[in-house]
Amino acid sequence: MEGMIYLEDGTVFKGQGFGAPATAVGELVFNTSMTGYQEILTDPSYKGQIIDMTYPLVGNYGISEHDNESDKIHAFGLIVKDLCETPSNSMCVKTLTQWLDENGVPGVYDIDTRKITKIIRKKGTVKCLISTEGISISEAKELCDKAVLKNDWMKETSVKEKTVIMPEHRNTEKAYRVAVMD
What does the pLDDT look like over 102-116, one tens digit per residue? Predict the structure, then answer.
């Protein structure tokens, strides 16, 4: 599957697609973490963003049932240098590719992620299109130009009802009551 990254200034990066056959437009951001791609993708603060991972190898420990930050992927896309399709982790239940596909999120690998990071560092906010659908550069330009980036995803990503999380091993002698406002 062909993958493409199109930046609003006309810069194009071509690579290999993975995840869902989809096209999305969002704010291009980078993340320098060595681990935690599952947590990053499900972190509501990444809603509407296409994440460029600077660490060169992503996917090597797969996806577990316990590492989500929320109930779904909030990011619009994922860009990586090297993609591991054979994860090694006893808690792995599926590959990153399978998980992105199940959630309708496109990814592109075999991209110079550090070059993208330098562009973001120099220009600041960059509108970006990610596609794994084999669209043309002219189609990418048209879709990117038409898209309007949303500035406030708070209303969509914040919880609507109170959530109570009980500790697994409750020691009543040392129990604390903690409230967190989202």
Answer: 999 999 999 999 999
